[in-house]
Amino acid sequence: MNIIDSVLNDFFWRALIGGLGVALVAGPLGCFVVWRRMAYFGDTLAHSALLGIALSFLINVPLNLGVIITSVVLAIALMSFSRNKTLATDTLLGILAHSALAIGLVALSFMPEVRVDLTGLLFGDLLAMTRNDLLWIYGGTALILTLLVVLWRGLLMSTIHEELARVEGVQVERLRLLLMLMFALVIAVAMKMVGVLLITALLIIPAATARRLASTPEQMATLAILFGFLAVGGGLSLSWHMDTPAGPSVVVTAFVTFLVVYGAAGIFSGRSSA
Description:
Elements: H1 2-8, H2 11-35, H3 39-59, H4 63-82, H5 89-109, H6 118-123, H7 131-160, H8 162-167, H9 172-194, H10 199-211, H11 217-242, H12 246-273
């Protein structure tokens, strides 16, 4: 017990444990972002997190809960609006993403009594991870991983061929909504790690890196988790030794890994074809 306490009392280990927890769930969930081409949707939900923070201060609830509530409401609104073909989906997402971010910033400016570290919220403050943050991260991770295991076949079928999935009796609309709610939850738990502006990068880059090497969906999800672990460990080491911001350092490490994997794969494929 003393060993556990000493580890949790060290800010670096808390950051590492929290970051690995986020990577554990961001990997497989990020695969669906890549497969379904939902990067812009992820950005929209991430930008709405700032509005959720303002809501949290307004109604006096925990930040994570306010972010989850706002993201869930926005996800449901997006599903409703997407059925109306008046506006293209990317146009609608662009409007909601930037509007939610701007409204959140304006709302916070009307609360002078509230002290908010905007830099930490926008770009993350991984080294300020607390024990309570770890509870949120691992509670959310356990819930999302359980849902992914239970719903994996249906989500995969509706991703590969939506019409065929409907014929097979898969509740496509319900699964889409649940996937959006899982995105909302992972954004809430990852917010402190990389910030609202970089969350989507943590979802996409490890999954995109894994796609270059994987031959099955399950293999891609596993590799995405491993590349996420590498990004967290490498990013924290870079931050520790070079005194760089922790959240952006994690994303930079993920990007460098992406370049190395794609570069090496291109070289080896070129040699094999020769």
